[in-house]
Every structure is written in C-alpha cells, then in structure tokens.
Design a protein that fits this description.
CATH superfamily: Electron Transport, Fmn-binding Protein, Chain A
Strand content: 25-35%
Radius of gyration: 18 Å
Number of strands: 11
Helix content: 10-25%
Largest sheet: 7 strands, antiparallel
Number of domains: 1
CATH class: Mainly Beta
Bound molecules: flavin mononucleotide
CATH architecture: Roll
Length: about 190
C-alpha cells in the first residue's frame, strides 16, 4: 500500500471500475426472427449526430444480425427488470425465443426492422454508422435515428453492471445543473 492508501488493482478487472452502462437490451432482426441480448459495454460517442458505441461480439448470435441488417434497437430497462435482463444475457437466441421465454413484448419500430421492447422505459432505433472496429474490437458505432421514452415507466431508473455480476441502481439524483456553467446548453430540457 502506498501513502495515499491505494493498493494495486488487477488490470483485467479495470472494466469493473469504469463499466459505464446502463445495462441495455439489444433487439435485432435477422430477416426471420427478432432476438434480444443483454449489453453492459456501451457509451455515448457524440451529441450531434447522436452516436453510441456498443460492444457486440461474434460469440453473440446478435452479431450476425447486426452485421447483415445494419440495424438494432437499444432498449433501456429499469432496475425492476434486472433479473429477467440478466437471464436474457445467459441464453442464446439461436434456438430460443427469448421474448416469450423471459416475458418481453416486441413492438414495431418506426424506422428499423428490429422491434422496440414494450417493457423498457426508453427505446432507441439505431443504424450502424461505422463498423471499422467491429472485427478487431467488436465495437459498433451506432447512430440513433429515432428515440422513444415513457417517462412514467422510468421508475427506479436504469441500472449498471459492475462487471462482476453485481449491479448498481441509479437511486438519488444529484442535480448540479446550475454548476454546469460551461455546458449550460446540455441542461436545457
Ligand atoms: C449483465 C450482462 C452484460 C453483458 N454485456 C455484454 C456486452 O456488453 N457485449 C456482449 O457482446 N455481450 C454481453 N453480454 C453477453 C450476451 O448478452 C450473451 O452472450 C447473450 O447470450 C447473447 O445473446 P444472443 O446469442 O442471442 O445474441 C452480457 C451479458 C450479461 C448477463
């Protein structure tokens, strides 16, 4: 331990410290069936255009659908759905209808073939904007073309994976809008 009280942290666990979340359900359509997967590695990339970075690897059945159709829906579940969302991430959609098995309801989207998830409080209809790092790093840059929210369903809010099977829920909101002096435009409704 050094004088500041730090101890070394294993590099292979660094993602546990910065895993951003929120945990998402990724809805895809492969031309035949819609599928769902769970995703914890994601981040906003730019405000305008609204780009999102998403890690989806070839170990996921969803990878092929994303590659072939170039579209998906990012659905944001609230923490009360956490158990079912984790179950979705333990199951492959190749031969299982996860919608039916885990009680999620597909709703037609406006601009993409993949359905929205009715139980989630927000749904983003996305197209692949850049797949240059999808091969080496499984990183997809998506552009949100349409976004939907049900504020009443936001409930206890989204939740985040700590990378080790534990999750943190967004509980208290800390409102520091007045201190965002340089970034006031971000605080406007
Ligand atoms: C909490 C949690 C987070 C996950 N995050 C990711 C992720 O960020 N990227 C990824 O490729 N797989 C992730 N997975 C694994 C996929 O959800 C899992 O491989 C799933 O079975 C894929 O479904 P599919 O084969 O039907 O596409 C996660 C699983 C869980 C439980």
């Amino acid at each position: 331990m050094d004088p500041a009280g730090f101890i070394p942290y294993p590099l292979e666990h660094v993602h546990r410290l910065i895993e951003p979340g929120p945990v998402l359900l990724v809805s895809t359509f492969d031309g035949r069936r819609a599928n769902l997967m769970t995703n914890g590695f994601n981040m906003p990339v730019s405000h305008e255009p609204p780009l999102i970075g998403l890690i989806v690897g070839p170990w996921d059945h969803s990878y092929a659908a994303l590659r072939e159709r170039g579209q998906c829906v990012l659905a944001i579940p609230s923490v009360d759905l956490a158990e079912r969302v984790v179950d979705v991430g333990n199951t492959c959609g190749r031969d299982t209808d996860k919608w039916r098995r885990f009680g999620f309801t597909p709703v037609p989207a406006a601009t993409v073939e993949a359905p929205l998830v009715a139980e989630c409080f927000a749904n983003l209809e996305c197209t692949v904007a850049d797949d240059r790092l999808a091969g080496d790093h499984h990183l997809w840059i998506l552009r949100a073309d349409r976004a939907w929210i049900d504020p009443d369903r936001r409930g206890a809010g989204e939740f985040h994976h700590r990378g080790d099977g534990t999750f943190s829920a967004n509980a208290a909101t800390v409102d520091l809008r007045h201190r965002m002096t340089k970034w006031q435009y971000l605080t406007q409704p």
